[in-house]
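#struct-pred
JK: can someone run the complex with guanosine-5'-triphosphate? inputs below
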Amino acid sequence: FPCEVIRNFSIVAHIDHGKSTLADRLVGLTGTIPKKAFGANQQVLDKLKVERERGITESGLTLCSMIYHSHQKYLLNLIDTPGHVDFSWEVSRSLAACQGALLLVDATQGVQAQSISVFHIARERGLKIIPVLNKIDMPVADPSRITAQLQSMFGIDPAEVLQISAKTGRGVETVLQAIIERIPPPSGSVHEPLKALLFDSQYDRYRGVISLVNVMNGVMRKGDRIASCHTGKKYEVTEVGIMHPEEVPVMHLQPGQVGYIACNMKESTEAHVGDTLHQANVPVDPMPGFQPTKAMVYAGVFPVDTNDFIKLEESIRRLTLTDRSVTIQRESSTALGQGCRLGFLGTLHMDVFRQRLEDEYDANIIITAPTVPYKVIYRDQTVIVSNPTDFPDEWGTASHVREVQEPMVKASILVPEEYLGDMMDLCFSRRADDLDHHYLDSGTSTSARVMLTCTLPLSEIVTDFFDQLKSRSSGYASFDYEDAGYKASDLVKVWMIASIKLFMTFLLNGKPVDALALVIHRSVEQKIGRTWVKKLHKVIPRQLFEVPIQAAVGRRIVARETLSAMRADVTAGLYGGHYERKLKHLENQKESKRRMKKIGNVDLPQNAFFDILSTT
Ligand code: GTP
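RT: done, structure tokens with the ligand placed:
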């Protein structure tokens, strides 16, 4: 396949707008999968189980090559793009190997907040955009209104908009035609030295690392000696192939082609997404890589059984090969033992990762409530704190900490106008600033849609913001956010303390209950303190003595509950003489003690921690 007949494209779409259905249609139409093998629910793009379950397409090797016979043979490479806001880095990664993109919009719903940001990334990269309206078979579809929307939002020419039904197959042929007519072929030369972009990778238990590459120049052949610009390491290419839609080995990959290679890379860390590969003895200039990802949400991941730590850590490392955007650090906690602190791009990303860990690696884990990275500005340095435990107890004029800052985001919410008031209330309750809104269309048959923008502290959206947004708008609101830097904020750390004695220890030796620290805004310290103290009161078993449970900011107690004492001595209820029975009771007590975690002078069953710290 010479360059002229190759088209590399991706589909940009909001979740549920029909990307997988359209991909299946394209695959079916091009005869990529024999018709009889093509089950009703078999979606080629959604390979991973979790993607199917959650209905989202994310990470994994998602490339599909098709051969299309028009007046001549074309090689169409569909490179999958995740549609969600958390994955904008993966979006740019997959778009780097494309020359065009289908902007797929549900004709019953219109453009959603998340497709807007992906669209802009595609346009910035100079990709040819083909607007496609899907689901025109549905009676409520309103193609003319949505076309007008595309025109006003993106300046798209209505004449270019295709109308299809991926479900019935209507118009899908025109999509294939548009792909070959409108999207430019990749450029590249067989006479130049080999230069290939590594844009995705996955770990295979038997073959080691499998990488997706886009050959820019030269030819990639089986048996080639290649090297990485990033690490300088050399490899031998043991397999070259295309995804058609499963792996199909081929003799070589030519300029403009995308495909997979195996090259005895053993370690997941060796495959750097954005790396340039070249012939081992013919160095080339590396292509500009990708912007390093920035973790926005952190959470501690611990094995339920502390003996499983090594296994858990290995599973996490394996998983990060298909998902490079996760950052890992070891973390240890008095309450939960040894674990890892992971950084994610967002909360959906965190959920997907957790589920993959559980599904694919059978991990039994506890994941702590998500936190965001704070900036602590000392007199002479600035430190990023991603674990509340490390947040300074006090700061301000009397301390060596000058200021603390929290990450902010610029949020965009797209919603029918009748929900505007509810959305504004929600934003204000989350410390929103610079609230603004404008109408996107006038709304004739259905209600007009409004774009609401504001800045919000990231910490306010990492917990239940998205759920609230959906429930308060009956599911109609769509939401997107982008990084808006850091801003000074009046934040405090709240410690949860059970028992006075511990409190003293904490003050004297600086030994806190690590897992139970939170960083929150000062204005809600009492409210949140009270909620947590109540939670603890519920889960801490009664002790032989009275236990005050308190939430403290520095030395100030902001909330308190008292756990009354339990009746002393487990054997007290047994009348004399039954020596063996008494012994058994004492033995039982000893055993259950062993499974307890001692926090200060209070025994806490590990389960209590799971109950209060678990995010689910
Ligand atoms: P994610 O994988 O979650 O991003 O979703 P997707 O964009 O891939 O959507 P998918 O293809 O899974 O389609 C979502 C739903 O819309 C499914 O129930 C499809 O059957 C339905 N659907 C897709 N295309 C059409 C269409 O043209 N007409 C109608 N009526 N339904 C469609």
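RT: quick notes.
Residues 545 and 565 are 4 Å apart (CA to CA).
The radius of gyration is 28 Å.
JK: thanks, will look after standup
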